[in-house]
Amino acid sequence: MTDDKTRIFKEFFSRFTLRHYKQGETLIRADDDPQGIFCLTTGYVRQYTISKSGMELTLHILQPTSYFPMVWAINGTPNVYYFEALTEVEIGRAPRDEVVAFIKNKPDLVFALMSELLEDYAESLLRIEHLVFSDAYRRVISVLLYIAKHFGETADDHVTVKHRFTHQDIATLVGVARETASIEMAKLTKSGLVRLVDHSMEFDSLQKLEAELLLASPSFET
Predict the structure, then answer these.
(1) Domain segments of the chain as ranges
(2) How much is the pTM?
(3) Less crowded by CB within 10 Å, the N or C end of the chain?
(4) Residue 48 in contact with residue 56, Cβ under 8 Å?
């Protein structure tokens, strides 16, 4: 969303009381009727699902400025996902009816929101492809690229992610056990493709990481 569209929406949400959540607190539970539309202004929120066996799979990590759950807001589709504070977060919350009334006569704003949803959808398809066709090593690489591109700060070719994503965080993004994620992360740190420094994650070259992903890709030739 452009800065102008973000400003318009943030001004609307500024009319409502800001709420603060601690790391690990649940904002929305699966199958619960959300209490409104949330505007994330500070921190990270993860959207996830839980399998029948109890395994968590993180579907998306939201960062400022994000609005959720927009699918429920626009067409009333029941929410089936959990939303949890990955860090301490600051959030505005507005009644669904007021949000819909605010945007319905603003086609440019609706288009911007739809563009974001479609971008997330395209990214989800790519992640599904990796989950289905890739081994654990390649899946971890794809998640590291996702983290670096969405949460990294770039200086020349060097990328730093200041939030320390734990092995458990990576495991829930990849859909494997924490121990498996730790094994694959150890391989990547040993090869120098990623460094864990204090509470940061550093990448000297995303191009090398992308090349490793292609090199590790399975062949489907017969």
Answers:
(1) 3-127, 134-215
(2) 0.84
(3) C
(4) yes
pLDDT tens-digit readout, 8-21: 888 899 999 999 99
DSSP element (H, E) containing 66: strand 66-68
Distance CA 133, CA 128 (A): 8
pLDDT digits over 156-177, tens only?
779 999 988 999 999 999 999 9
- 44 within 8 A of 11, measured Cβ to Cβ: no
CATH for 134-215? 1.10.10.10
CA torsion, ordered 13, 66, 54, 178, to nearest 10 deg: -140
CATH class of 3-127: mainly beta
* Torsion over CA: 186, 208, 119, 137 (sign): negative
